[in-house]
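Illustration: ATP-binding region ATPase domain protein.
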Amino acid sequence: MQLLGLASLIIYDVFVLLYFKKMFPPKRSHWLFYLAAVAINIGIAIPSYLLLDHRFAVYLIMGSIMLAFHLLFYGNWLQILYAGSLYMFSLYSSRGIIFSIYAFVLHTSIKDVLQQETYYITIFALAVLLSILFSLFIRKVIVPDTSARHLLYNKEQLRFVVVYLFIQLVFLTLINDGRFHDEIRQSWLSSLYLISCIISKLWLLVLYHTTKVSELLEYELHTRQLQEQLSRQMRHYQSYRKFTESYRAFRHDYKSMMTSMKTLLYSQEYEKAARMLDDIHDTMQRDVLVHKAYSNNVLLDAILQDAANTCEEKSIRFSAVAHLPENISITDLDIVRIFSNVINNAIEACNKVSGPEPFIEITSSGNPDWATIEVSNSFNELLWKDGELETTKESKDFHGFGLRIIKETIEGLGGLIFIEADQEKRIFKIKLCIPKASP
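Result:
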């Protein structure tokens, strides 16, 4: 029977760690590290339940899974707390349901059930099974993994979920203490414990709500970006229309000016011809608007045109040559999601520079397999946390989406993103590598 309990704990640990691997970027991928994490948790869990009061054992085991998470995955402190509380709450509430049902069926108290080793191990194995089935139900029906990721990166909503899980866990441990009080009618305690554990499982409603809120916040961000992009394209169109109109007006007079120029040259009146050339040049500089192209892609060019205007207003030196090959599979929405966020972050960083002239420089290059665009900008400070770049904006919950969207979109295209920060020269570089389609 002891082997059944050990096998159940191993299965549960592996199931949870594989779920975390799917949801969080791994620090270590080799299976030996996962084996070590399972061994650490088992080495802490079994002695804790055998030697310590259950009220302390619960939180010690929770701490061990948090340690395993920290060793295996990248995540902030809130995500680590979520991992630990989810692991322990799911197992503890499932165990409470099975214990209570056993007490009812056997017409005895929870305390007596716990004192029987055979019952205890069997109940633990059933609790593991219930936890896994309930988790799969949530992931398949209520909150799919793709939706849950929105919650994991929304600090405000995730904080609410962590606090809720922790309070529920404390509440269940307090009710479980009732088995040590003989003056409490045990049948009533079993009913209370069963109902409490079942109600606590309704945390999936909290999970569903917070996930939806996180999705709506990200949708709002996308909508705002699309609205901003529409405004950029309208400004780009107006600028191009003015350029076209001014060019047509110049072209209207161009034929007569060239006729006059030929006449002067045939008459060998070179000084007058030179003055006329100067007048034509001055007229062109004065009346014909210069439309500078930054990219061969119309949408990206509109984004860069708008960025150039913003940089001019903010006294930021701006230069860009961004060529997007036709044989890369990138949609207009991808272009907006990637480059709007990259450029907005660069402008935001330059706004905080108090030293030499801030700058933004965009270059492009490529080879037969990859198209590469590199964005360099000056910066004043960067915040690195848990191996990732974190926003320095005050509204971290909202702006944190933009930092993640760049990476998700590039990786969704099968591409790579490289970040380099020269602290001495105060130059930040982000390199976007996008694969080209096979011929």
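Reading the tokens back as a structure: The longest helix spans residues 203-266.
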